[in-house]
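User: Can you predict the 3D structure of Putative pullulanase? Sequence below.
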Amino acid sequence: MKFKINTLAKTTMPMMVTSIMLMSGGVAQASDLYPAQDDEVVIYYNRGTDNEAEYNGWGLHLWNGEGCTSTDLEKMGIGSGGTDWNDPYPVSGFSDTYGAYYVLNVDLDASDPHTCMNFILHKGDDKAFGSANQKVQLTELGETRGLFGFHGSSQLYYEPISERPIAIDGQKAHWLDRDTIAWEDAANAARVELRYSPRNRIELDEETNVITGGKSLMCRSQVN
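Assistant: Sure. Here are the predicted structure tokens for Putative pullulanase:
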């Protein structure tokens, strides 16, 4: 996604792009989690909507390789070469709190041994968690054996989180020209602003989710 800067600061100065999301981090609700077994991993995908139709067509591209061979493709009914890009692994169910979820089987006889699983959550050529290939790091799984993510963000969580946190993110945007910024991770943001402070005084109050300090320039989005 590209963002146009309505007004461009004339002086070179330290600056930080901030994405103000629709919601702040929520309290985990264990009752709305899939009861994963020891040989299962659950990937949760939250699009910020209760409408299950919004998840239609979104599935997982799965494969073993690149140092990660712990996905039990055979048990999941998938060939040894992994899923076909045009026929992704479908959703397993829906959680009112955490969105769609996908249950994967872990190969307990894998040669890695049991360190990671490859995946890409996508719909056609659109990818939910950014352009990079994703991995489930099995050693980082919590008691829920879940991995939690939000549409448009590459940040994934190993503990239950129901709402996307507000955060100040740095070094994720690319300044293409004098008035255009490309920032893939902000595709689901309510608004985007360019905030700058010559004295490096931009702060986020984690209790109130209010960003203070410096000056800001509002940007308008342009999806490519």
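The two ends are 6 Å apart (CA to CA). Residues 5-29 have pLDDT under 50 and may be disordered.
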